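Supplementary Note 3. Input sequence used for the single-chain structure prediction.
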Amino acid sequence: MLDIRRLYMLKTVAARGSITAAAHSLELSAGAVSQQLAALRHDVGVDLLRPDGRTVALTEAGRVLLEHADRILAAMEEAECAVAAVKGTVGTTATLAALPSTVARIVAPALTALGADHPQLAVTCLVTDQAQLRELTLGTVDVVLGQHYHHLPETTPKGIAVSPLLDDPLLVVTADDGAVGRSDERPVGLSELATHHLVVPPATTDCGQAILHACHQAGFTPTPRYITADIAAQLTLARAGLATALVPRTAIDPATPGIRTAPIRDHPIQRLLFAATRHTETTTPTTTAVIAALRTASRQNPTHLPLV
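The predicted structure, written as C-alpha cells, is reproduced below.
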C-alpha cells in the first residue's frame, strides 16, 4: 500500500522543483526526503524523478502517479472537511496568505474581527506577492487573499475555489500642495501621463503588465523614471513630487498627507481581489469564518467597489 506522506513529498518536490527546496518547505532534511522518495520508487518499481539541469522533473510514471496522488490527497481533505463540518466549530489554527497591499485596509481589520469573534483561532498570516496559489495547492496555506487584473487571462489552478471580494481600481497619485492627502474630483486621462515621470512596478509583475497594457491602449509606451513594486516607496516618490504613481485604491490610506489621488477616466486599470481556498464539496467552519471576515472588511472599506 502506498504511503500518503510519500505521495505528498512527491507532489511537493514536483511543485518546488528540487529535493532541497521541498525539504526546506517540509521542514525536513534533504536526506530524509530523498530516503522517502527512494522508498516510494521501490514501492512502485519505476523511476519517478529525473535530473533536469539543477532541478528535478517527473518521469512519465511520476506524472501518472502524481495525478492519482492529487485525487487521493483531495479525497483525504474532503473527508477532513466533512468531519469538521459535522463538528460545527471553528478550529484553533488557520494560515492566510495575503498581498502586502491588502494588509492595512482588509487583512488587519479582518484579523481583528476574527480575534474578537473566535478568540481560540490563531491565524498565521504569510504576506507575500509570490506564488500564493501554489502554496494553497500544496496545503501550506488555507486561504489566499489574491488578485487578478482584469485584462490578464485567468490562471486559477485546478482544484481551487475563488470567492470574489471587491474590484479595486488603480488611482493616479501625485504630490499635493496642501498638508492633507485628498482626492481630486477630476478624473485623469491616462494619455496625460505620457509626459510624466512615472514610478511603476516591474513589467514582470501583474500590476506592471496591467499598467503597460493600459498605456499602450492609451497610445503611448511609458518610460518610467523609477521601478519598484514597493507601494510605500511609490507613494513616497509621489509625495516628494519626483514621480506620478499608479496605485491600487485599497493600498492607499486616505489620510496620507501630501498626496492627491484621482481616478483614471478613459483606460481604467482594475484588479479583482478574491479569497481562494482548495475546492471541497464541504467547507469547514474555520475557512468559512476567515473568508467571512475578509468579506466584511472589504465591504466596510469606504473606498471600495464591492462585489456581491
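Confidence is low (pLDDT under 50) at residues 303-308. The chain is about 40% helix and 25% strand.
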